[in-house]
């Protein structure tokens, strides 16, 4: 029971809200990560072929950057898969 005091307004309760989370499914995340990695690998391969063919518009730095982007995308997809497997194993080992 609360009593109001003249001249004092009650304070609204503080409700903490966490960061907004995009509600995507796990399969969609895996699919997007793999598609991104595949696309970046194709671009890196294409850049390397252009450079090897002597295309003057393709420099070695662009080839290295494309290859590193592809490498990062593959490592991200692998890390995502490893974390999902780790979470699954932890759930399976949980005693009920």
Radius of gyration: 26 Å
Q: Give the total of beta strands.
A: 0
Biggest β-sheet description? none
First-last Cα distance = 40 Å
Helix content: 55-70%
Q: Low-confidence parts lasting 5 or more residues at pLDDT below 50?
A: none
Roughly what fraction of the amino acids lie in strands? under 5%
Tell me the overall shape: elongated
Based on secondary structure, the structural category is mainly alpha
The ordered H/E elements are HH
| Mean pLDDT reading | 84
Specify the number of helices: 2
Task: Report on the architecture of this protein.
With 96 residues, this protein is an all-alpha fold. The chain has a domain at 26-92. Helix content is 62%, strand content 0%. The chain is built from 2 helices and no strands. The protein has helices spanning 26-52, 60-92. The two termini are 40 Å apart.
Question: What would you say about this model in short?
Answer:
The protein is mainly alpha-helical and 96 residues long.
